[in-house]
Amino acid sequence: MKVISLVIPLYNESQAFPLLRQRLAEFSGRLEGQYRIEIILVDDGSRDGTWDQIMEFARADPRVKGVGLSRNFGHQNALFCGYEFAAGDAVVSLDGDLQDPPEIALEMLARFERGADVVFGVRRQRAGESVMKRLTAHAFYRILGWLGDTRAPLDSGDFRLLSRRALDALLRMREKHKYLRGLVGWIGYRTDQVEYDRPARAAGETKFSWLKMIRFATDGIVNFSRFPLRLSFLLCLAAMVPFLGYLIYAFVAAVYLHQPLVRGWSSLLLCVVIFGSLNLIALGIMGEYLGRVFENVKQRPDYLVMNVTSPDVMPPARQRP
Ligand code: UDP
Ligand code: MG
Do residue 8 and residue 114 come from a single domain? Predict the structure, then answer.
């Protein structure tokens, strides 16, 4: 019987947990006899009792495997941890707030049975999210699609199914600050997609502050596009053209027409300010890329595990030496 792993990262989700637990139990019940299910719950350093709830769920249901991280490592790292612990022939990742309805995973499984390696969940509509979030998300995916080499469908999040070989490919990517949606698009293999309307959060609040969201968007752009680097070059080039013209004019005026431009104070200031700012911006953009090189050279682990719900909860590679 094929094994299906559900991977769910959780950060302070104690309010949504009872609902999640109920829906997961229902969902696994529906697949009983057809597949063997494992539910991997990754606690990303919660401080609101989420871990105790995971322990209790794991005690009551042998299909549940809980992994507790040593602190909050962020959604992408927690998800990656879940992926590393998953032993399934297919792995479905979803959010713990029920914004990715488990029932849609049934359709993903049907596509998997028809031979798909990667099934993206594509959001058609988003309920219960602020206009600002919807607008920025909409714009961001389009800008990234235009700039970057991601190949993931527009508006696809981290709700997806991966076959074993697609997951193994993903696990080989050791880069830091992972932008998983982009990496999954990079894999290739046979891809498919399921569209769904994203419901509002079941309970609790979003765990993504604006700052986290901006960082995440920067990861997406910087990891998948060199356009910002090229842009700083193009901008400097574009700014140089008028000032070069001005230089030639000043030269001709002074040498041939004997009219030295003593009135050039404002233009001089303009020139200094524009080139000074462009220099700093270009340095900042370079720093963003250089910082990532630094992070990658250090090769720190993506996360540290502090607790597991039972001693046999470990990544499958170590189970099969
Ligand atoms: N999450 C996490 N670590 C974090 C932030 C979020 O594991 O640092 C989890 C969170 O518990 C949820 C999922 O990632 O299961 C998506 O987060 P959230 O629903 O807050 O994001 P949104 O849907 O608002 O973009
Ligand atoms: Mg959510």
Answer: yes
Give 4-59 pLDDT, tens digit per residue.
Answer: 999 999 999 999 999 999 999 999 988 888 999 999 999 999 999 999 999 999 99
What lies within 8 Å, CB to CB, of 9 at 6+ separation is 42, 44, 75, 78, 79, 81, 82, 95, 96
Ligand 1 near 208 CB (within 6 A) = yes
Please tell me the pTM assigned to this model.
0.84
The atom number, within ligand 1, closest to the CA of 206 reads 20
Q: Round to whole Å and give the CA distance between 98 and 64.
A: 17
What range does the domain containing 221 cover?
3-225+302-314
- Other beta carbons within 10 Å of 61: 14
Give the count of domains, the chain. Answer: 2
Query: What is the Cα–Cα distance from 4 to 24, expressed in whole angstroms?
Result: 13
Lowest mean pLDDT among 92-101, 102-111, 164-173, 203-212: 203-212
Atom of ligand 1 nearest to the CA of 157: 25
Rounded-to-integer distance, Cα 196 and Cα 71, Å: 32
